[in-house]
Design a protein that fits this description.
The complex is a heterodimer of chains A (169) and B (100). Chain A has 169 residues and is mainly alpha-helical. Chain A has helices at 2-23, 27-47, 51-75, 78-83, 91-116, 130-141, 143-164. Chain B has helices spanning 4-24, 28-52, 57-87. Chain B is mostly helical and 100 residues long. Chain B is built from three helices and no strands. The longest helix of chain B is centred in the C-terminal third of the chain and has 31 residues, at 57-87. Chain B has a single domain (4-89), classed as Helix Hairpins, CATH 1.10.287.3510. The chains are: A mainly alpha (169), B mainly alpha (100).
């Protein structure tokens, strides 16, 4: 029961703050609401006994990516953006399309979800073993993907430095 | 225990909000934030199904998605800085260099 209430609270928090992220005029406010959404999603991870992923979510998303966002918002002129229109010209059509997409997905899930009959299942690992299990999977079965991901991060780092550099000569 | 469908519905909702953000906003920064919302929705689904199938593979995949999100945010924000330096705007519909 308490688990269900927690789930509802976290879901509503995530969805409402996500709506605020995409509707605020000020990009700083959007970033702050994004932090709340990310925290709520982290709570959802914790609810599913994915403790390691919860820690990664907090450290990497809330601690890293959001700070990066706030930095760039500071670099970009915000006073001009506050006076301009928030939404693009095609926003009505885009909204209809996106709602149609969500409706189709929801309808398919609602029918198919019951057909599949996904019931609740008890988790396989005890809370203390989640990090161990993830680490084992990462460094045994997924060794090559981990290396590729490290290469990706290196390329992204070099790319970000090149992009933000003033002139190339 | 919460049914797995509920998590998938939550993921669908968050995904839809992210798609609406990407399609309707003009500010490139907000578009990048919406992409983060979409990636988070994917992660919710991955973790829920990883619990459902009693395997940590989904969680490992979610870690790779987060890695990807970090790389994408770094390069994307670098692009925005370069863009703002050259065009003095962060609005997606004012960037029409290829249009003539």
């Amino acid at each position: 029961m308490i688990e269900f209430v927690t789930f509802i609270v976290l879901s509503v928090l995530a969805l409402v703050s996500a709506v605020f992220v995409i509707t605020r005029r000020n990009a700083v406010h959007s970033a702050i609401w994004l932090v709340i959404t990310l925290f709520a999603v982290g709570g959802i991870f914790l609810l599913q006994h994915a403790e390691f992923l919860f820690a990664v979510q907090i450290i990497l998303y809330v601690g890293g990516i959001t700070v990066l966002f706030l930095f760039v918002v500071m670099l970009v002129d915000i006073d001009v953006a506050l006076k301009q229109a928030r939404f693009a010209r095609q926003s009505q059509l885009a909204l209809v399309t996106a709602v149609l997409l969500a409706g189709t997905l929801g309808y398919a899930l609602y029918n198919h979800g019951h057909g599949l009959n996904l019931p609740a299942r008890p988790m396989v690992t005890a809370p203390a073993q989640n990090t161990q299990a993830v680490g084992m999977a990462l460094y045994q079965n997924y060794m090559l993907p981990v290396e590729i991901a490290s290469l990706l991060l290196l390329v992204a780092m070099v790319g970000a430095v090149i992009m933000a550099k003033r002139k190339l000569e | 225990m919460i049914p797995t469908d509920y998590y998938i519905f939550l993921g669908t909702g968050l995904f839809a909000i992210g798609v609406i953000g990407v399609l309707t906003r003009r500010n490139v920064l907000i578009i990048l934030m919406s992409i983060e919302l979409i990636l988070n929705a994917v992660n919710i689904n991955l973790v829920a199904l990883s619990q459902y199938f009693k395997s940590v593979d989904g969680q490992v995949f979610a870690i790779f998605v987060i890695t990807d999100a970090a790389a994408e945010a770094a390069v994307g924000l670098g692009l925005i800085i370069a863009l703002f330096r050259n065009k003095e705007t962060v609005n997606a519909d004012e960037i029409d260099l290829l249009k003539w």
